[in-house]
Amino acid sequence: MKTDHDLSRWTHDHRYAVGNAAAERGTRLVMWITIATMLVEIVAGWWFNSMAVLADGWHMSSHALAIGLSAFAYSAARKYASDPSFAFGTWKIEVLASYTSAIFLLGVAAAMVFGSLDRLWSPQPIHYAEAMAVAVLGLAVNVVCALILGGAHDHDHHGHDHGHEHHHDLNLKAAYIHVVTDALTSLLAIAALAGGWLCGWAWLDPASGLVGAVLVALWAKNLIVQSGRVLLDREMDHPVVAEIREVIAALPESGQTQLTDLHVWRIGNGAYACALSLLTHDTALTPLDIREALSVHEEIVHATVEIHRCDVC
Predict the structure, then answer these.
(1) Is the dihedral of CA 151, 29, 211, 214 positive or negative?
(2) Which CATH fold topology does 12-231 show?
(3) How far apart are CA 240 and CA 105, in angstroms?
(4) What are the CA-CA distances from residue 104 to residues 175, 212, 223, 312 (Å)?
C-alpha cells in the first residue's frame, strides 16, 4: 500500500511568501546602491592611485553582479512557483544562486590577491586624503546595505523557526555576506590608508588587500559548503531524520512495525520532504496514521509512505 501526502500547501504558505518578498525588496535596493557606489570607487581608486580603494571598487562590482543574481533568483522562484514541472517548488533556484555567488566571491579573492601583489612589487604614489574619503563613503554605504539585508534576515528567522536551529535563507545570506565582505574591505582600506598617510607605511595598502582576500575566501568556502549541502540533498544527519524515526518507534503496537527505508531532503527554508517504507504485522496501520503521527513536526511538509504487510517475518 502506498500513498503520497502533502501535509500542507507549503509553496503557498504565508510565512514563506512574506519572507521572500521582504528579502527580494531588500536585495534589489542593495543592488542599486552597490552599483552606484561601485562606480564611484572604481573611478576614484584609479584617479587617486589607491590600490585599496580600486580593489574595493572592483570587489564591489562582483558583489553588484552577485547581489543582482540573488534578486533575479527571488524573481524567478516567484515567477515559476506554480509551474508543475518543479516537483517540489522553486526554492532551490535561490540556493543555486547562493552557490554561484560563493563562486563569485572566490573570484573576487583571487583578483584581490593578484592586484595586491602587483602593487607590492610595483609601488605607486597614493593620494591619501582623497582615497580615504572614498573609502569612508564605501564603508558607510556597506553598513547601510548590511542593515537593510539584516532586517530581511531577521524577518526570515522569525518566520521559519520550527524548534531546530534557524533555517537560513541561503540566497539572502549570500547577498548579506557580499555586503559584509565589502564593508570589511572598506575598513581595511581605511586602516591601510591611515597607516600610509600618518606613518609612511605605503606597503599597508596592498597588504590590506591580501588580508581581505583571505577572509573573503574563507566566507566563500563556508557558503559553498552550506549551499552545496542543500543542492546535493545531504540531509540524512539532520535532527529531523531522528525525529521521523522516533515517530515510527512510538506508534501503537510499535513492536510490530519496522522502518525499512527512509529518505529525507529539504525543499524550502525549514521545510522537508520524506519518503519512507514500513514493514508491519499491524493490519490496521494505514498511511493516514503515519501522516497524522508525522504532523507533530511541522517542518515535514510532504510525505510519501509505503506499507508492506507481513504475516510471518
Answers:
(1) positive
(2) Alpha-lytic protease prodomain-like (1.20.1510)
(3) 31
(4) 11, 15, 11, 58
Do 228 and 99 meet the contact criterion of CB atoms below 8 Å apart? Answer: yes
The torsion of the CA quartet 51, 55, 58, 59, rounded to 10 degrees, works out to -170
Strand ranges (DSSP E) for 1-158? Answer: 2-6
> What would the grid cell of residue 304 be?
510519501
Angle between helices 91-121 and 170-199 (to 10 degrees): 20
Assign domain 239-309 to a CATH class. Answer: alpha beta
CA angle 152, 156, 160 (to 5 degrees): 175
Q: How confident is the model at residue 260 (pLDDT cuts 50, 70, 90)?
A: very high
- Phi-psi region at 163: left, alpha or beta (left = phi > 0; alpha = psi -120 to 50): left
Domains 12-231 and 239-309 fall in the same CATH topology: no
| Domains of the chain by residue range | 12-231, 239-309
Per-residue pLDDT at 15: 38
Q: pTM for the complete prediction?
A: 0.70
